[in-house]
Amino acid sequence: MSYQCFTVDIKDNIAHIVMSRPEKRNAMITAFWEELPAIIRDIDENAKARVIVLSADGPVFSAGIDIGMFTDIAGPTDKNHPQYGAGFYSNVKRLQDSFTAIEQCRVPVLAAIQGGCYGGGVDLITACDMRYGTKDSFITIYEIIVGMTADVGTFPRILNHMPEGIVRELAYTGRKMMANECKDRGLFNAVYKDKEAMMTAVMDMARDIAAKPPLAVYGCKRAITYSRDHDTSDALDNIAVWNMSMLIPSEMMEAMQAKAQKRDGKFEDLPPIKSA
């Protein structure tokens, strides 16, 4: 299937989603917000891959939301219009859901970032499981520069990675945080000299994850996200109930035997999600 904003390649249990509008610095137009969650859900619901890698063509990872989107987001442009607020709210919720699809999908999503990651791009990468950058990459919570408050996902997620004071500084000033500082602050997992080195390392990481039991990886993703959003007591009970319901002794035995025999494990894929 062809997309306006993405190319998708699935091979060896890894789905590689590439933002493919480099001539527009991968700005997020209306089609972007429709295509991304559809791609993510198709991969997840049909069990097409065990890991997703998200990257971008061109020198810039993403320039964020396309300026033309602002009219679509606002709904009625007259603030005195009785439906203005409701229209704005429903449109922003729709955009938020596009990135929540990344967080909710059962398989890990790895972001590979080169060049600038502006505004909505930061919303995007903070929804991913892991983030990697080139040494020249940077993030900027750019919304403040254009008189906005970031509203598509940055704040509730970036606070899980960096201290509150640093997040406030980035939000209030819109300054660029370069890759090495992103790594030092805990947002990036690693930084590489160039895109080629980064993509080699990210794909190696994806292959490593794809070789692990998919149900156990899904359990880890679910437990980590749940633990982040709940207190310790609830999180402990949640993982106990998960393993009570989902732990498969035969998969554990296969994992241990594969390690002992120095071979790849043979694990069942996640089941497809059936539509109601």
Integer-rounded radius of gyration: 20 Å
CATH overall fold name of the largest domain = 2-enoyl-CoA Hydratase, Chain A, domain 1
Overall pLDDT metric: 94
List the secondary-structure elements in sequence, H or E: EEHEHHEEHEEHHEHEHHHH
Written overview of the protein:
The protein starts with 5 loop residues before the first strand and ends in a 16-residue tail after the last helix. The protein is built from eleven helices and nine strands. The strands form two sheets. Strands 1-2-3-4-6-9 form a six-stranded mixed beta sheet, sandwiched between helices. A three-stranded mixed beta sheet has the order 5-7-8. The chain folds into two domains: 6-210, Alpha-Beta Complex (2-enoyl-CoA Hydratase, Chain A, domain 1); 214-260, Lyase 2-enoyl-coa Hydratase, Chain  A, domain 2 (Orthogonal Bundle). Helix 1 packs parallel to helix 3 and helix 9 runs antiparallel to helix 10. It is α/β, with parallel strands linked by helices and 276 residues long.
How would you describe this structure in keywords?
single chain; 276 residues; alpha/beta; 2-enoyl-CoA Hydratase, Chain A, domain 1; Lyase 2-enoyl-coa Hydratase, Chain  A, domain 2; six-stranded mixed β-sheet; three-stranded mixed β-sheet; 47% helix; 14% strand; globular
